[in-house]
Amino acid sequence: MKRRYLPLALVIAIVVLIAVVYAYAITVSSRSVTVSGVTVGEVVVNGQTPIRLRLSAGGLSASERAAVVARRLSAMPDLAASEVTVSKVNGQYVVVARNQVLITADNSQALEYSTTPYGLAIAWRDQLRSAISGAPIGAGPSSTLPSTGGGPSVQSKTSVDMSQKAVPILSVGSGLRVGVAVVAGEREQVAQVKAVAQIEGDFHGNARIRALVPVSTENVVSNINRVPGTSVIGVADIRL
Amino acid sequence: MRPRIALLAVILAVVMLVSATTMPSSALNLGSAVKLFGIAFVVKHFGPQINSFINTLLVQRGVEWQGTTKVVPIISIGRGLYIGAAQVAGPPELVKKVKAVAQGELKIGSLRGNALIPVGSTNITKGVDRIEGVGLSALIDFRV
Hints:
In chain A, strand 7 and strand 8 form a beta hairpin. Chain A has 5 helices and 11 strands. Chain A is α+β, with helices and mostly antiparallel strands. In chain B, a hairpin with a 5-residue loop joins strand 1 (68-76) and strand 2. At the A-B interface, helix 4, strand 8, strand 9, strand 10 and strand 11 of A face helix 3, strand 2, helix 4, strand 4 and strand 5 of B.
């Protein structure tokens, strides 16, 4: 009798497993939409539109580009929101997932949305993360993009969450505090900055160079880790 | 006699100018060039060399900037004086727009310092045209 129940339990377990996998899998597709007479390509993730492309590039139309992005995302059905990041490849900002480039934030597309390629990449990343996690696009600190030309859109103006803070300037080599610097950048990046490393150089005896590098540790003697996306916007020297 | 002296002065100035622009920076005293022709001239002619020098310095430390860099003059807000030079860094299309770094007073707690703002014009006496997204990467003090 017990042997009869065994295959049944096995079938139920498999069904439950498939249901769980499908529940967490992202649904991705692409579509062409005509907005004010212009055909745009949209990437649809879990029913939302995190990426809308208006321009052709690399010999592909906007719709074809959207289809390529959707195909790349479809190959990662169990993709987590945190796996979507921004990187720089061959001098261009790109949105990446699992070491695979999803889309390049090119100059033309950025200008179309009145932002920079970096701002566009950050916005796409945040919107993709929201769509994957099921959060409505535009909610929270995520960056969103404007819809130029009206029509159906879930996107609005870019606004990267910026912040700034004062940290000590530490001389590389001696580790001495030689001043205070104000660093600025994206909030999550600025939060990692613990100090600004001052690297000194001498240009042929004619000029003193002080390179200022925002770093994630106060131990600048043996370890300098630059915090990307942050920069110095002010300095105060300590006069000895 | 006076026209002769004037002519001589002009020839001398031209020779010095040509020397300054053609001589390698190692052979030229930048301090003298700053005194003679000003910071704007030195930054214009030797900025790329100084920029490469700074980038090499950062590469040696393994903390090179992932973007474009450029050396521009520092101009004081208010008086409009050229008071130094700085290297700015950021996305190429934004760095291209930077013409100078405007320096104004900055208060950090009890400390007084200098705010350094990349701007899109060297004429900052009437207002500051800030270039967002570009930061300061290095300061350059000329020995005069």
